[in-house]
Amino acid sequence: MKQVFRSKGAYILAWLWVVFAALMAFDLVRRYNGAPSLVAAAVLAVLTALIYVTSMRPATVLLEDGVRVRNPLRDTFVPWVRIDDVRVSHAILIEYGEQSVRCWTPQSSARERASAARRGTGAPRRGRFQTEPVRTSGEQAALEALAGRTHADFVAQQLTERAERARRTAQFADAPAAESVPVPGTTWSWDAVAACVAAAGFVVAAIIAS
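RE: above sequence
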């Protein structure tokens, strides 16, 4: 089963920018007046490329055979059985062999981690005579499970569980099947490179026209 994890807020804002950029581009074409329009188009292209590679494209994608980490300009694929460790600080770090890859998204800020820690304590008591509501055992267990956990922690747990499950399955596999496991690798993201090259082209055209 394929699962895609990313910063939803950044993704939504990126799409809003794309809609705005499309409207602006249409207006620039309709009211084209030479060098000023090219300069405005260059600024719009650079901002759009930057937002695309940093907010829209990055994701951590869980596939059947491994995890694909889509960072701004490069993609890294790591088979589940090759993952040695998954750690979380402000970002998720996946270690495999002597290499590692840091996931651009999802990340956990200090504010988000503090908010997650407060979830485990429940709502604060207010008023002199207000009593603390009695929680069921299930509600208390849910609060304790969520205490201190951010979105990045949840994704790291999914990565760890699927890697451990894959290693247990591989122990019972025959030799040919084990040898057919894909090799980890990192490649350039050509769509991100194309977006940057296109933006650079607009900048060059604006410089020449000026």
